[in-house]
Amino acid sequence: MDRPKKRDKLRAVYSMSCIYENGEKKGAEGIREVSSMCSISEMTDEYLLSRLHDRPRLKLERKKSNDDMSLSLYDSAHSLDGRSAWDTPVFSIKDSFDPNPMVTEAWEALCRSQVYFRGKPVGTIAACDPASDEVANYDQVFVRDFVPSALAFLMKGEPEIVKNFLLKTLHIQGQKKTIDRFKLGDGAMPASFKVLHNPIKETDTIIADFGASAIGRVAPVDSGFWWIILLRAYTKSTGDHSLAERPDCQKGMRLILSLCLAEGFDTFPTLLCADGCSMIDRRMGVYGYPIEIQALFFMALRSALSMLKHDSEGKEFMDKIVKRLNALSFHMRSYFWLDLQQLNDIYRYKTEEYSHTAVNKFNVIPDSIPDWIFDFMPLRGGYFVGNVGPAHMDFRWFALGNCIAILSSLATPEQSNAIMDLIESRWEELVGEMPLKICYPAMESHEWRIVTGCDPKNTRWSYHNGGSWPVLLWLLTAASIKTGRPQIARRAIDLAEARLLKDGWPEYYDGKSGRFIGKQARKFQTWSTAGYLVAKMMMDDPTHVGMISMEEEKHMKPPLRRSSSWT
Ligand code: GLC
């Protein structure tokens, strides 16, 4: 490849590259070498355009709105109008050069957080807080925490660490997994792993945690889904299909799918989980059918569908996936969706309805509707509620699940817009002074005691119980760009920039509006830095969103409903 001419002026911000410990830096097999020494800022528009050509075909449209430039992303496979990506304007690094020292600091922190196995980077440590003696398991590579790091490296053109991570965790999946005397499913992926270095023997070994050591023995249901989603992101970003096509990767995917597509006693297509099975990995009343898992499940199924080989084993899974996707999207779009109209319907529900003609399918008792929702629900807007099960509707808002619903197109375009409307009209509550609330509202008093088991870390407006998590910024940014509303992300990034670096990249913030650094928050939490970098890079080059976003499948049409936010 001809190296583009250096642009000295632009080099500063992005030029820091993560050169691996042993000085080695190779491009991934089967893809064009993108040297780590070639900074993003050195890339000319020509080069960016050639990357665009390699990447999923994305068409960018700039629409002038009154007060802002809004930008919509379409997958041209679904919106071909005879024009190619070349005809449409593309944001270039040149246009968006941002001499923000925070970006440099964030890259430095991210590079420092890299974990090596036999000289190769295989992940990033959860936190490297030099001031904290209390390490707990924050010195491990968490699968979910690595996702924003991985996206940052992919966007920077350094895919090797991501490939190493995918293969290392795949290898860990293949280990024998038991907790006490109980054998875990073959497909289970670890929550985290740690590299132990023996300086005398000069050996590295890995110990993985599948929930046996985690506080409360929680099951990391999300890990397998993130693994599949990341494999797709790697493939999309690099154009290297050879990794996903490897027999061990195909098998790894099938093992994960076997776990979640197994037939059981279920009457719903959603996935039944225990509490603490995802980012919220403590008891928080998210057992049953939590939105975060359902959205990740949906996205992982769609990702797997695009990567499974059409051989006999692959085909068997593809058939199951297609059926499940149809049932899952119908269920989620019908029963998890809440807007003013739907809330009013539930408010007037009859109960104890017997037979398939029941309107109130889950026998939700209107008295169980919490008071806060009546004021919180705006005229325009809606969201997927936290959980739906027999006589159970958790009305809380969860950020990750709703953003993933937008990115995976589990939400229809109208629902996606309604979610963004809600965020805009309930900005104080959901974003406040630090993006973004993990869930809303917090539980207090008696409810907190019963639901969390008196968890002192999850007191009201702290940690998982209504705390604000900077890592969620990348998800909000991706969702804003996908829905053509980048001004929402811009506003959130400005808030983060006012504090994150100064505060030392905390893990989370406390308080109703996220004003205080979290009571027990780690500093230099890697996914806070990575999340910020990913948000910045997506704003600079929105085509990056393509690696983590999917367009709506036309055959998955939403059911006809009366809801006001569905037009
Ligand atoms: C906390 C978070 C979890 C995260 C872990 C490591 O346990 O709840 O989501 O993966 O810390 O950062």
UniProtKB/TrEMBL annotation:
Keywords: Carbohydrate metabolism, Glycosidase, Hydrolase
Hydrolase recorded as keyword: yes
Entry-linked InterPro entries: 6-hairpin_glycosidase_sf, 6hp_glycosidase-like_sf, Glyco_hydro_100
Keyword Hydrolase in annotation: yes
Tree of life domain: Eukaryota
SUPFAM superfamilies in the cross-refs: Six-hairpin glycosidases
Gene3D superfamilies per record: 1.50.10.10
This enzyme's EC code(s): 3.2.1.26
Coiled-coil boundaries: none
Signal sequence extent: none
Reactions this protein catalyses: Hydrolysis of terminal non-reducing beta-D-fructofuranoside residues in beta-D-fructofuranosides
Cross-referenced PANTHER family: ALKALINE_NEUTRAL INVERTASE F-RELATED (PTHR31916:SF41), PTHR31916
Function noted in UniProt: Invertase that cleaves sucrose into glucose and fructose.
UniProt family annotation: Belongs to the glycosyl hydrolase 100 family.
Name of protein: Alkaline/neutral invertase
Species for this entry: Camelina sativa
Record lineage: Eukaryota, Viridiplantae, Streptophyta, Embryophyta, Tracheophyta
Gene: LOC104712778
